[in-house]
Amino acid sequence: MAKQDPYAALRYREFNIFILVRFALVFAWSMQFVIIEWQVYALTKDPLYIGLIGLMEIIPALGMALFAGHIVDQKEKRNLLAICIALFSIISFGMFWITSPTITETWSVQQILYAIYTLVFFGGLLRSFFGPSIFSLVALIVPKKIYPNAATWNSSTWQMARVLGVTFAGFSIGWLGENDQMGVHWSLCIVFGLVMFSLVMLFSIKKKPILNPNIGEPMVQSLKEGVTFVFKTKAILGALTLDMISVLFGGAIALAAVFATDILGVGSEGFGILVAAPNVGSFLTMLVTAYIPIVRKAGLKLLVAVFGFGLSIIAFGLSSIFWISVLALFFSGVFDGVSMVIRQTILQLKTPDHMRGRVSSVNSMFVGSSNELGAFESGLTAKLMGTATAVVFGGTMTLITVLTTAFVSPTFRKLDLTEDMETHENED
């Protein structure tokens, strides 16, 4: 195999533009989600209402996922993504509007919550199209032989945007207004501006060909083909299942507002540090993976990474000291970063071009939606068990999942992507 070029994907102009668009979108979406979590907890002082944010997003995202994948595989990717971003701008403007003084002074708490949950619901509907569109578009921008490097930079950009987005959100609430409410309002204005910026930049990428040979294929047949492919491809199924369970039960970060306010007593700025810590860890780790190949013994590395993630979540749940909590979340991000790069590499190498939308949609059902379901699970178990106990429970379930997977699936444990890489290098 040829020597790895850590900057291979960055040598393509359109990939750099794509990365900038993705950064702005993820930064904006991360800011918005964190700000809304803070606002909802400020209004209710109840962790269950934070969990409901995740539930309201997962319902439409899960329900529309397969349909969205079918549409993506049938349509031109650049323009479809532009439509998604334009609709997202309407949602972000709506969040900005309902946190304005005019609304907060005249509407009841219940009415504001209904409005927030409604916008989150439509955001979930829209999100089901975002993942497949982005996953399919990046595969049309770079050659197959550098998919792993593109996956690394793509995931690193996602994590860096989350790091800066959630951190800036936590601090901006206190910086941008004379009180937290005005800080929330003007922070959401920044979100809207970033979304509009990403929309403008996207048109610097040329329209891409539609590689699906079955344009006009009946939807039921198309969806069946996509689901069947995922369940027959053991490497993809194993990676998605493992990540889904870990994200579902390891969603401790959804309770960061509760920890910051009631357990650690560090306020909105400490809240920003807590939610940023895992993303800092992920980002730094993914920068390292650009230099170190992860295709060899990928299955074993993924199992170790998810196990380390579970241990870090347990440590966070047991801690009542701020710096230890930050450190635990940082290491959860380190392990999650390795997991993410390996999973994205498996998906890119194992998925045919004409099925990327549908496979990405199944991925969003397994992993993407489990983030929101995990937020709901965390909120519900915190209500039933107590916040710290709920987090420890989630981390323990993650460890059990890893050990079970390693025991019952030796094929996945021995998964190696070296041959797949060599095949794609020969194709290009």
UniProtKB/TrEMBL annotation:
Alphabetized InterPro entries for the sequence: MFS, MFS_trans_sf
Has UniProt tagged this entry with the keyword Transport? Answer: yes
* Pfam families the record matches: MFS_1
Predominantly, its location class is membrane
Q: Name one GO cellular component term.
A: plasma membrane
Q: Where are the transmembrane segments?
A: 15-36, 48-68, 80-100, 112-140, 160-177, 183-205, 235-259, 271-295, 302-331, 384-408
Going by the UniProt record, its keywords in alphabetical order are:
Cell membrane, Membrane, Transmembrane, Transmembrane helix, Transport
Give the location in the cell: Cell membrane
Output the Gene3D superfamilies linked to this UniProt entry. MFS general substrate transporter like domains (1.20.1250.20)
**Which membrane topology describes this protein?**
Multi-pass membrane protein
Q: Which superkingdom does the taxonomy of this entry point to?
A: Bacteria
GO MF annotation terms = transmembrane transporter activity
- What is the protein name given in its UniProt record? Putative MFS family arabinose efflux permease
Q: Which organism is it from?
A: Ichthyenterobacterium magnum
